[in-house]
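Action item from last week, closing it out:
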Amino acid sequence: MPYLQDTHDKVTTERLRLMKQRNQKICCITAYDGLFARIFEEAGVDLILVGDSLANVFQGKDTTLSVTLEEIIYHTKIVKSAVSRPLVVADMPFMTFQINPDEAVRNAGILLKETECNAVKLEGASNKILQAIEYMTEIGIPVMGHIGLTPQSINKFGTYRVRGKDLEEAEKIYNDAIKLEKAGCFAVLLEKIPATLSQRISQELSVPTIGIGAGQHCDGQILVCSDMLGLSIDFNPRFVRKYANLYDDIRKAVMSYTADVQNSTFPNADESY
């Protein structure tokens, strides 16, 4: 089948499904503000995730656990208002969906209504979460699943090591992926698992898999924007390819600006009224 090449068409969950069928890779990235979201749209990304990684990127926190629903709503509103083509997905923060399915659905509804995002993402595949996903999809809230390394469970794991390296955990992740599709997820994010496992899952599921540190066999890839742009100097996992070195570029630019101000060479006559 030919690729879906019209980059002006709105990306929907159905379009993502067709992209998987046609073996067209799905490009995803995180964004938390309108400026970067607009740039990413112009660059042709298919999906923007307003991730709870804003805790690390914007707030300087070590984990994602402190992000609130109100903060996700604020950032998602901004991103959604800045773009028209990409599918905008919002993370559901820690403790907004784990307690019981009714509360999860209520919070997902609030997130969808207030931000006009296109879908929500939930970490994990426990029975309660699967029930919540079923409930959400029944009433029209699209859900992306997330398994493998789930950052909201970092205090349980105690480490950010690769998940699914042993047979027992690999089988659990595989079975969880099947359960998530059955519950109604339109896509499943696979984080930091062996490439052989993500290949097996991607071949089994009819919905797209989106990988981060999960190898080349996933139907799409996602990176945190600050990582791939070279803004996160203290975070250098092997799965991140840095396409720029903006930390140094920005630092040098601001140093030049500071020097020009201190030397009274900015502004000059042409820059004055």
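Closing note: DSSP finds eleven helices and eight strands in the chain.
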